[in-house]
Amino acid sequence: MDKRLIQKLAVTFEVCGSRRLSEAAMKIIVQDLKRENPEDLSKALDTCRREISGPLSLADILRRIRSQYESTANLPTVR
After folding, report:
1. Which of 2, 54, 65, 72 could bridge across to 44 with cysteines, CB 3.0–4.6 Å?
2. Mean local confidence (pLDDT), 68-77
């Protein structure tokens, strides 16, 4: 995961009302998220900043990534 995305992740946690994460906590979260598509992750973080009004969790981010897949899976097929 590139440094800009890690910084965006840290800022999103802070903006959403979470306490500042320790370096160890951030490493674990980055490890969990590194297999995700960077563009999908970035969009999920943008959505979290708009929607979350309390402490942010890893599950919040993952739900928003998954919902992107679900919404595109429900699109009609163009023939």
Report:
1. 65
2. 65
